């Protein structure tokens, strides 16, 4: 007689949710020690029969998309990253380090959204499309004051209510109100609730019926329906699932604030990023006013856009043209500086690299970097010493960027090499020169993507000369520019010089007018 199969014991990691049939001391997924605990017997697979459907399936061409059109937030830089704005019924996760400005940003978004009138369809719109909300960045008025319509503009939107619910689990309501007074985010239709229990949050949703809800943060909200403390894997999974259900059923846009670990990853199970529709990262140096937001997942728009903001005591303001923050304006050029153009997503940013080479008083000379990759800087210094015979074994080398921006692209290599060489020789480069290119170990200068876009941005800011790798311009052999001079071409008023290796780049750079 065959024995009935007994259910095997199941063990689960309390940090990431990884499961195994036997106990182990270290999680096989997140490599954490002592987090694998008994999760009870494994539940056998059940056969589920067909049941009633919520709505019949229909051809995709007959699906009405008017209710899913994105609504601008009022912050153009955030709309750029989101792909136009917030989509009703979507769930957005915004993560960032403590003190970076996540709560300030979302408080301004909530205040602007509470002032947005409810869309009303035009009477003469035969297509049935609902007009989009205006995306102009308008200041938030004080409480009880209604902004006047712009002169010469006929409003086509009804002046209905747009209630917004801001749930804070980390601060008291009074603390959030103080920040709202400081940044001017006090409006009549912005509702504030300080809660840490999921059932209470859902009760506020029933009472307020918001169009937008901000939860700050998801790690502080818990429910008594499941075991574990708030912020644990089980709690985050249950809370997120319930908020997603509310968003999809009621068409409420939900924005969740997420904590990050010391490695920079979002705290909690990886499943959290899979469940939400959009994942945004808010970045920046806490000692700098510049803040950047980028999307790593976006079901409604691109993931290669970058939004730039200026953080001050009065709030967060979008920076449509942030390149000026990363440059130093001076009358005379200084040795050890070179300008380059980096691509953040699809946005070109002009940045300045500075280098200082000084006589060392230590047996082992110092190598200090700020805003650049340390290993990349060491490689460029080695190439300069070996291929260009620029010896720095007795000199301290300090390299930095201007404005606190961090440059990780390999296209910065050439500008870094030119800055270090200029500081070593005490010779300044032309103030109208930029350098683009990746430097290889053999001393060659390699092509980088997006050269045309980078050159166009540099030309817009007034730069006249550029040094780029050979083949970057992709000109045909029959081009009159190519016939006139194989090394010198023109790009929107710029003289673009193509080089093959670092030695040639140094010769061209220090002889350019």
TrEMBL record:
* Extent of Low complexity compositional bias: 137-154
Domain RecA family profile: from-to ranges: 67-260
Family of the protein in this entry: Belongs to the RecA family. RadA subfamily.
UniProt name for this protein: DNA repair protein RadA
Q: Where is this region: Lon-protease-like?
A: 396-513
| Coiled coil segments of this chain | none
Residues annotated as binding ATP are 96-103
Chain span(s) of sequence motif RadA KNRFG motif: 297-301
What domain of life does the UniProt record list for this protein's source?
Answer: Bacteria
A Pfam match:
AAA_25
Q: What does this protein do?
A: Plays a role in repairing double-strand DNA breaks, probably involving stabilizing or processing branched DNA or blocked replication forks. DNA-dependent ATPase involved in processing of recombination intermediates, plays a role in repairing DNA breaks. Stimulates the branch migration of RecA-mediated strand transfer reactions, allowing the 3' invading strand to extend heteroduplex DNA faster. Binds ssDNA in the presence of ADP but not other nucleotides, has ATPase activity that is stimulated by ssDNA and various branched DNA structures, but inhibited by SSB. Does not have RecA's homology-searching function.
Q: Which CDD domains match?
A: RadA_SMS_N
Domain description: The middle region has homology to RecA with ATPase motifs including the RadA KNRFG motif, while the C-terminus is homologous to Lon protease.
Q: Which SUPFAM superfamilies does the record match to this protein?
A: P-loop containing nucleoside triphosphate hydrolases, Ribosomal protein S5 domain 2-like
Renumbered to this chain, region (Disordered) spans: 117-154
Which PROSITE patterns does UniProt cross-reference here? RECA_2
Q: Keywords of this protein's UniProt record, alphabetized? A: ATP-binding, DNA damage, DNA repair, DNA-binding, Hydrolase, Metal-binding, Nucleotide-binding, Stress response, Zinc, Zinc-finger
Keyword Nucleotide-binding in the entry? The reply is yes
Cross-referenced InterPro entries, in alphabetical order? AAA+_ATPase, DNA_repair_RadA, P-loop_NTPase, RecA_ATP-bd, Ribosomal_Su5_D2-typ_SF, Ribsml_uS5_D2-typ_fold_subgr, Rubredoxin_2
- Does this entry carry the keyword NADP? no
SMART domains noted in UniProt: AAA
């Amino acid at each position: 007689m065959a024995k009935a199969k007994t259910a095997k014991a199941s063990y689960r990691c309390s940090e990431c949710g990884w499961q195994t049939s036997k106990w182990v001391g270290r999680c096989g997924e997140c490599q954490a020690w002592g987090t694998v605990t008994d999760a009870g017997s494994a539940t056998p697979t059940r056969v589920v029969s067909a049941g009633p459907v919520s709505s019949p399936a229909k051809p995709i061409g007959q699906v009405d998309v008017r209710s899913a059109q994105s609504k601008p937030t009022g912050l153009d830089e955030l709309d750029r990253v989101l792909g136009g704005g917030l989509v009703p019924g979507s769930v957005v996760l915004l993560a960032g380090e403590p003190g970076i400005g996540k709560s300030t940003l979302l408080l301004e978004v909530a205040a602007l959204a509470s002032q947005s009138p409810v869309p009303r369809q035009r009477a003469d719109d035969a297509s049935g499309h609902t007009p989009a909300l205006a995306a102009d960045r308008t200041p938030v008025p004080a409480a009880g004051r209604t902004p006047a319509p712009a002169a010469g503009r006929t409003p086509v939107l009804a002046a209905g209510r747009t209630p917004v619910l801001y749930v804070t689990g980390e601060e008291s309501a009074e603390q959030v109100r103080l920040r709202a007074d400081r940044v001017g985010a006090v409006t009549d239709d912005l509702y504030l609730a300080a809660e840490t229990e999921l059932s209470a949050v859902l009760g506020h949703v029933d009472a307020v019926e918001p169009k937008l809800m901000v939860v700050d943060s998801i790690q502080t909200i818990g429910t008594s329906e499941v075991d574990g403390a708030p912020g644990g894997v089980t709690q985050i999974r249950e809370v997120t699932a319930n908020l997603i259900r509310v968003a999809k059923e009621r068409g409420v846009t939900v924005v969740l604030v997420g904590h990050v670990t010391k490695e920079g990853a979002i705290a909690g199970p990886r499943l959290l990023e899979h469940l939400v529709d959009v994942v945004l990262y808010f970045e920046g140096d806490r000692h700098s006013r510049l803040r950047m937001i980028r999307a790593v997942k976006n079901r409604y728009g691109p993931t290669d856009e970058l939004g730039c903001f200026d953080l001050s005591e009065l709030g967060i303001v979008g920076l449509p043209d942030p390149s000026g923050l990363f440059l130093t304006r001076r009358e005379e050029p200084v040795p050890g500086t070179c300008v380059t153009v980096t691509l953040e997503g699809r946005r070109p940013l002009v940045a300045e690299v500075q280098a200082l080479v000084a006589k060392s008083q230590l047996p082992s000379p110092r190598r200090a970097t700020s805003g650049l990759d340390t290993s990349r800087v060491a490689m460029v210094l080695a190439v300069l010493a070996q291929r260009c015979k620029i010896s720095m074994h007795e000199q301290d080398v300090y390299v930095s960027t201007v404005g606190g921006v961090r440059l990780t692209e390999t296209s910065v290599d050439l500008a870094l090499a030119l800055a270090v060489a200029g500081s070593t020789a005490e010779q300044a480069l032309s103030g109208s020169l930029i350098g683009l290119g990746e430097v290889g170990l053999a001393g060659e200068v390699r092509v980088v993507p997006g050269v045309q876009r980078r050159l166009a941005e540099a030309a817009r800011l007034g730069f006249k000369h550029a040094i780029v790798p050979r083949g970057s311009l992709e000109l045909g052999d029959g081009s009159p520019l190519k016939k006139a001079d194989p090394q010198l071409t023109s790009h929107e008023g710029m003289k673009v010089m193509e080089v093959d290796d670092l030695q040639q780049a140094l010769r061209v750079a220090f002889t350019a007018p």
